[in-house]
Amino acid sequence: MSEDIREVARKRIKARRDFWYMIAVFIVVSILLIAVWAFTGSHDYFWPMWPLFGFAIATVFSALSVFGPTSRPISQDRIDDEVRKLGGDPRA
């Protein structure tokens, strides 16, 4: 059981680390895209908003998977309740 908990903890730590890495990449890509837009001289239309918008959506979903309600481990009580709902015996 201790090994299972350690594995879950390892996966959660890795997910958090990957999320913060994604934030860093988002910032760097944002700066690069805005710099390209600024130096090309075409200031009538802010085209970087489209790739940044897509990247922001991906970042929000990544944040939800790491910090949202589905990131919490499933408790044994919750599993037992679901087994009971299905008509089974949770002690089996």
Structural class: mainly alpha
Q: How many structurally independent domains? A: 1
Biggest sheet statistics: none
**Helix share bin:** over 70%
State the order of secondary-structure elements, H for helix, E for strand: HHH
Number of β-strand runs? 0
Which stretches are poorly predicted, pLDDT < 50 over at least 5 residues? none
What's the mean pLDDT score?
A: 87
Protein name: 2TM domain-containing protein
Transmembrane segments: 20-39, 45-68
Pfam families: 2TM
Keywords: Membrane, Transmembrane, Transmembrane helix
Supply database-style keywords.
mainly alpha; 3 helices; 92 residues
Structure, explained:
The protein has one domain. It is built from 3 helices and no strands. With 92 residues, the protein is mainly alpha-helical. The mean pLDDT is 87.
Give a quick rundown of the structure.
With 92 residues, the chain is mostly helical.
Give the topology, please.
Layout: H1 2-40, H2 49-67, H3 76-85
Helix pairs in contact: 1-2
